[in-house]
Amino acid sequence: MAHPDLPAEQAYLDRAYERLETVRADVESRLKEAYRERGGTFQSYTERDIKVRHSLSRLEQLELGREALIFGRIDKEGESYHIGRLALSDERHEPLVVDWRAPVAEPFYRATGAHPMGLRRRRHLMTEGRRVVDIEDEIFAEPGAAGPAEAAGLEVLGLSGPAVLMAALSRAHTGRMRDIVATVQAEQDEVIRAPLAGTLVVQGGPGTGKTAVALHRAAYLLYTHRWPLESQGVLVVGPTSTFLRYIDQVLPSLGETGVELSTARGLYKGARPSPAFTEPLEVARLKGDPRMATLIERAVRQRERALRAPVQLPYGSLTLVVTPEASERIVKAARRRHGTHNARRRIVERLLWAELAAQLEVRRGSRPGPRELAGELKARADVVQLLDRMWPRLSPEELLHDLFGAKPLLDRAARHLLSAEEAGLLYRPRSSSPVELVWSAADMALLDEAYFLLGARSGASLEDDRRARAYGHVVVDEAQDLSPMELRMVGRRSLSGSMTLVGDIAQATGPWAPESWEDVVRHLPFGGPSKPGARGPDRARRWREAQLSVSYRAPAEVMLLAAEVLSEALPGASAPEPVRRTGAYPRFIEVRPGSAGWGPVLPQTVEEELAAVAAGGAGGEDGNVGVIVPPELLGEVRAALLASGTSFGEVGAGALDARVSLLALGDAKGLEFDSVVVVEPALIADMAPQGLRALYVAITRCTRRLAIVYRRPLPPALERGRRREMTPRAPS
What we know:
six-stranded parallel β-sheet; Rossmann fold; single chain; 4 domains; 42% helix
């Protein structure tokens, strides 16, 4: 039976969309007028540019695409507000739609039966395009009154709007993350609306919505702190370029388009890592070690050195001499000054001119001006060579090329810091030029560290500004996988320590898998636990932790299997509580011994999963399947799918745009699919250094179905799950 208020809500939604079109037409008209303005003063040009930028920004905010304009309503005593994606007023400037980030909208996400926050009713609108298809009400007439969540038996999880939530969770996936603005739950909203100051760590297991929450937090902070964040900027750091593409539509759908997205290694704007270059695990781990910061600092200091022997400089009929003692005074004086290494080269030059001018005053009885002397000597090859011996201008690439390619330099910098074996791991033969040197992913943090010590090689440029840019707020996803050196690189991008780190310690799979968030935060420049009662700047520079405990992604049938894996991967850790059951238990498909490759079993399994998600999908989409494999099997699996005629996409070739995505495990981090096919879990479990945690990641990427295809014996945790699935179940 249709809700009695459905016609009224439809009429209100129609009115809101009509007003939206009117506002959009008005903004487009003002934009056209601004473009038509010609001539005038510099001030008029500036004013025109401001009008154009403002109009374009407003048009971006008004572009909703297929997303709903209004998704909720709250009723208080004598007043009500419709909650939506953006603020909209009627012709009399009365609120028609309240932005979901506004303080008045907070009860829509936070109110409970025990704490109604002044609400009499919370209403969720389910829409398809511009049509209201259903309404779900929660009544708060009396303190503690039961609403739909309690009636659905979900009160333990503290969920609101369960029907709308379940409808959203049942929608098929399209290869892009959707926003969750209409279904944000109370524990998520608490994170989203947390204060700007300081570092917030969000611990959440797979499917708890931590990525979506972090992005909604960025949108909320930009709304609440428009000044200064609009000028300072917000940075979102993700684990892979595939992941960034997966999330790139979330913030625009929330009306925010000025946020920069990057991987951690992409923060360094100079050299790029070679995709084909992999280095041993022990080398990658060493390059992530925080001791590398000291090593690089020493390497820079080694290049600030006094002369070992006097240097003679002809000057007319005279010969000027720069002694080791004089050069040592100059170097020591320059080291005491503030600034980067390359910037202090000018100080060395000025002190050298002063030293030579003093000699001329003694020899000739007159002292030339520093500018006059610099003009005569600065371009001379012998003077340039002298300065380069004392204080060379260096790029990060040149510094590391020299350091790693010269054993004496490396041994000296590593003395009492690294063992001889560790220093040997860093050595690599010199190339003919730093430009030809192949860099690894782990090198990016070292190059970035070097850049912030060295500074611009010559005069600062736009590229140098981009390299050194810091932001008003930084969001880091999958933060548990960053090495200490990468954390230092990310931390430097925060102007004041305002950061949001999201991740899951149990899903840490990198060489530096931490045991706690304390192990992560201590490598940030503003790290350190909050002191009780701390206020002001001290409080702003501390960190706090929030927990997300409910999984909205994988169903209970899959999370039960995941919990078995987690109990071995990280004893004592607990998986998040799933919100739903689907009745689809994980499938285990064994490839018989002696079979040639992975066909036809694997392609057939993929086709079966495609058919299953299409049959059970919602929202008019067919759904998608992710095939997750150990890196060493990627070629074999690709060949099997090609031989069967299965259409699929891969990383770098539209993996997210295809119904079937073939991904190595490392590229699947942070992604989700309607169904996941995990290939050869034994190989994943054996992967160094955190194989079982990696397996935990792989099997929790699905929202509906999980299939496991294997030839080798299953890891014990999965074998227990397989045997449990073979046990007959009583009818539910």
